[in-house]
């Protein structure tokens, strides 16, 4: 067995996990403990597979816990999966894979009922046992189930964590997964991970398993202001790239239109004002108090998210201001308290009372519509490596995710993966035993210890150059600045005495292990560079990719996906493929090379 990662990241630096010092063996290792990871683990366990869940912080520390609006499914009278399909395809702006969307919307209602069976409690309509349903942007029907008013994700997380505990699943918390292990045939054989804090697993170790499910969530932390929690650093996408898997559609970062505006210097996770607030009748008004969405789209404030985010940005530019306002004073105190208690508390903690004043809002990075490319069974292009949830690109979201389809996608595709694993879809048999000489055979470590400041630098560069509004110029500047960061990091890594530097023998036991911050910063830089490369390539405006210099959607030239890998020559390669070819329907690595063009990255 050898460690993967012998190629270089887009940083050009060899990114290889340190050799494992301890190990655990399982049938499947699930990386991440949000809705996708926990559902996959529970389902695998129910099918008799030994599943281990590894997660970077605590079990409930991902985006799932923060989800507000709800989970979309055709649960209501008169609603149908077909109508849900239609709304999803429209939001996806011509780039959804219809087969994937069909799987989502037809399997969605039962998946939600299974979640309820697992213990999740959704709000019910007054005086009834029926699930209460609301609306969000892009949905022509009320089909969003919610819990605790605006605390849907917290309830889903609570229920799934409780189910995992009841099922007695093995979990390893505070463990950052570094890289994929592969066997001599290039098949998945587990992961290496770095456990923080005290405990029996302290330091770098490994979980050996023939199937790995990446469920690491999003990459919102690539930007300065995001709704995503601190753990959303794109680790799964970076790991997948290093292991040779394909990623796709990274340029489609969804900016949520209504995030509480806390000033131009605000950084890190920002409070979301759910789209469900607009679903219940809140208005967007500009600095002059005018409802500017009326007349812009048939659904006005409930237009798909990308359209609202663009309208807010445009109107703010016209008026020379930083934000717009969401006015829901007409809800009254009781409705605010009952329906949106979390948002009410968050606003008040920042000195804004939505009962008596409009809420200042601006777009912020919210969701990665692209990610690690999978087929309908959740298989990536590396045998035995699966991906589900926000880290994955199943083809469901196209160029822009429809509101509240994300939790649903996590459920449905996690279940599909578990079914595939249960049917023997991963590499056959147990992983090969680790040969004693693995320490000597691992590639030389040359991970630069990126300083924590690198994270903030990446975020500033990405926010300025690759944010909600982009252009060739802004993207070129971002690419150049990221290059500088990469070069500085490389130089620092080579400096005498640096961990992983040239003076540290590959097998040295004295070299300090890179810290979590170093891995996260490295992963952020890696995904930022790939994201910018994809955004530079897409010379049109589509879905949540908005190019100032190419303001129109161009189906003739760009109704395509970019499939991005790190080649054996260590260069980033970007291929384009037509929508109809996406994703593969048969599985793993034996796909014919897509047409038409294969080019080195810019
Ligand atoms: C504020 C907010 C509100 C939202 N509201 C909604 C909504 O109402 N409806 C909806 O459908 N969607 C919503 N979304 C999106 C949705 O919540 C997420 O897309 C979804 O929860 C992602 O689930 P996941 O399981 O893929 O990832 P997450 O829930 O983000 O979990 C990822 C997990 O991976 C772990 N992890 C990451 N990297 C590593 C690593 N290297 N090693 C080990 N573990 C790692 C994390 O610690 C975490 O446990 C919202 C998102 C946010 C941020
Ligand atoms: O509550 C919100 O607006 C967030 C949401 O639905 C989503 O991201 O799907």
From TrEMBL:
Keywords: FAD, Flavoprotein, Oxidoreductase, Pyridine nucleotide biosynthesis. Its cofactor is FAD. SUPFAM superfamilies: FAD/NAD(P)-binding domain (SSF51905), Succinate dehydrogenase/fumarate reductase flavoprotein C-terminal domain (SSF46977), Succinate dehydrogenase/fumarate reductase flavoprotein, catalytic domain (SSF56425). Residues 455-576 form the Fumarate reductase/succinate dehydrogenase flavoprotein-like C-terminal domain. Its EC number is 1.4.3.16. It catalyses: L-aspartate + O2 = iminosuccinate + H2O2. It comes from the Bacteria. Residues 27-407 form the FAD-dependent oxidoreductase 2 FAD-binding domain. It is an enzyme of class 1 (oxidoreductase). Pathway: Cofactor biosynthesis; NAD(+) biosynthesis; iminoaspartate from L-aspartate (oxidase route): step 1/1. It holds the Pfam family FAD_binding_2. It is found in: Cytoplasm. Transmembrane segments: none annotated. Residues 494-514, 574-602 are annotated as: Disordered. The keyword NADP does not apply. Residues 593-602 have a biased composition (Pro residues). Belongs to the FAD-dependent oxidoreductase 2 family. NadB subfamily. PANTHER family: L-ASPARTATE OXIDASE, L-ASPARTATE OXIDASE, CHLOROPLASTIC. Catalyzes the oxidation of L-aspartate to iminoaspartate, the first step in the de novo biosynthesis of NAD(+). This is L-aspartate oxidase. The gene is nadB.
